[in-house]
Amino acid sequence: MSLGKLIDNTTNDLSKRIDKQKVPEHVAIIMDGNGRWATKKGLPRKYGHKRGVSVLKAILKASKKLGCKVLTVYAFSTENWKRPPKEVDFLINLFSEVLKNEIDEIHQESIKIKFIGDISPFPETLKQIISSSESLTKNNHKFLLNVCVNYGGRQEIVKVAKELALKSSSGEINPSEVNEELFNSELLTQGIKDPELLIRTSGEKRISNFLLWQLAYSEIYISDVLWPDFNEFEFLKAIIDYQSRNRRFGGIELLPNESYKDSQYSS
Ligand code: IPE
Ligand code: IPE
Ligand code: MG
Description:
Blueprint: H1 3-16, E1 26-30, H2 34-40, H3 45-66, E2 70-77, H4 85-108, E3 111-116, H5 124-137, E4 143-151, H6 153-169, H7 180-186, E5 197-200, E6 219-222, H8 232-243
The chain binds 3-methylbut-3-enyl trihydrogen diphosphate (2 copies) and magnesium ion.
Residues 31-36, 76, 80, 91, 202 line the site of one 3-methylbut-3-enyl trihydrogen diphosphate.
C-alpha cells in the first residue's frame, strides 16, 4: 500500500471516531513552527512560510468538511515586527500573493474572509487586496475565515477600553452600563462566538498575545508537529482530544443519573 493511501486510511479511521454532534463551531489556530521546519531541512525560513500556506488551505478544507463554521488563524502578530525586515517584507508579500491567487476559490467555496488586526501599517497594495477580498466575500455564509494580521490581544483590549471611555465622556453611554456584552460589542471579533478550541503547533505552550479575551474558556490543544507538517490527520486528532474534554466552565460535572446532594456539605 502506498504511503498516501495509508495516510488516507488512517484519516478515515479518525473521522469515524468523531462525534458529529460535538464538532467545535469555532477553532482558533496559532500556526507556529514554519522557521524551525525550514531550518531543520537546511532551507531558508521562507520555505517554511510558503509550505505553511498550503497547510492552511488543507486545514480550511478539512474544518469546513467536518462541519466547523469559523476558523481564526494567527498569521502575523503585533510582536512579529521585531523580526528582520527581510522576513517581515517576505511575509507581507506572501499575504498579497496568496490572497490574489486564492480569493476566487475562497469565494466559490462560499467562504467569507475577514482580516482582524490593525492593517494601517501595511503597504497600500495589500490593504487594497484585503478590502476587495472582504467586500467580495461579505455575503458568503457557509464558513468564516478570520485571518489575524498585525493582531495583538492586549492592543485589542486597550482599543475597546478607549472606545468605551470615549463613548462615556461624550455621554453616549453611562460608565455604569459597561459590562461584558458591551465590551464584546467593541471587540474586533464582535458578533463571532468565542473559539471552543485553540490549537497551537510546534509544541510551544503559550498564547503569544492571541485572542486574550476570547480564549477565556477555550480548550487548548498543543501539537508538537511544526505547522508545515500539520495536516488533516493531526487536525482530527485535535478534534478527538477536544471531544474527550469535560468542559465545566467553573461548575461541577454530575454523572448521568446523578443529582446534586446538599448532604455532601452537611457536617
Ligand atoms: C509562524 O512560524 C509564522 C509566523 C509567526 C509568521 P514562525 O516563523 O514563528 O516559525 P518558528 O517559530 O520560528 O519556527
Ligand atoms: C505567534 O508565533 C504568532 C503567529 C503564529 C503569527 P510567534 O512565533 O511569533 O510566537 P513566539 O515569539 O514564539 O511567542
Ligand atoms: Mg514561532
